[in-house]
Structure formats: structure tokens, C-alpha cells
Amino acid sequence: MASMNLFIVLAVVSVVFPTVVLATEFKVGDDSGWTIKFDYVAWAKDKEFHVGDKLVFSYPPGAHNVHKVNGTGFKDCIVPPQNEALSTGNDVITLATSGNKWYLCGVGQHCTIGGQKLAITVLPAADVKLDAPSSAPASTSSAIGVVKIGYQTFVVVLMAITMIVLV
Ligand SMILES: [Cu+2]
Q1: What keywords are annotated for this sequence in UniProt (predicted)?
Q2: Ligand 1 geometric centre to CA of 35 (Å)
């Protein structure tokens, strides 16, 4: 009855799977990472950030750091005390609340001259989010469409696997 047990497990998984919230991890600046002379406005423009998602600031340790600041600090590049900086070179920030968030680099003139600062808007946690960040749809309706198609494909694949196992 091993195959029957497998079928039950797959059936349960196929029902539960669409309700699971998958957090997205955003590598700030993608392959460029956290650096000067990068357009973080353009980088953030097409992305949807939700509560529970993560920002990863990646850079050579010592070259940069990460400060969370307020809107004024962001606009004027006001750097908080050095001991409040994240500085591991692989700094992961979990977006815990919705609203506007601002980050900057406190090293030298990286913020003022290098433009090394990031502003994002965090939305409430998404109920269903199965698509990768790079293909995140712009509107809610198309997002639901993508999820439905993805889910149907998922079920068809599951059924195919189950048939193979049972035969
Ligand atoms: Cu820097």
C-alpha cells in the first residue's frame, strides 16, 4: 500500500500548497549588489515588497555598510552612529511591517555622491505568492491568473507522477 500512501500525501500537498505563503528574498542591486553608482530607484521600481520578504545587502565587508533611516535621513543622507550599522557584507533584513522603508550606506560620501541609498514601499503580506520575484506581475488580477495556471500545471504534474507510480 506504499503507493496509496504516496497518493494521499500528494493529494494533501496539492490542497495545502496554494495557501502557503512563500517569502521572497531580494538581493539588493541583483548581481551588482550593494554599491555606489547604481540606480536603486530603477531596481526597486518594478518590484513588489511584502511583509515577510527579505532584503539581502551584499558587498565586500568593509567597503560599505547598511543603515536603516527615516525619510529625512534618506533625502539628506544623514548617517546614524556607526555602531548602528549592519556591516557583515551579507546583511539580511526581514521586512517586518508595511510602509515606506529607507536604507543608505554610511561610508564616506557613498550616499551623497555615490547615490548608495534605497527606498522601498512594503505591502501587507500576500496570501498567495508562488511566482518568482523576477516575473512578478504588475497587477493583482494577472497575479491570480499566473497562480491559477501554475496550480493547474502543478496538479496535472502530480497526477501524472501518481499514475506512473501506481502503474
Ligand atoms: Cu558604500
Answers
A1: Copper, Disulfide bond, Electron transport, Glycoprotein, Membrane, Metal-binding, Signal, Transmembrane, Transmembrane helix, Transport
A2: 6
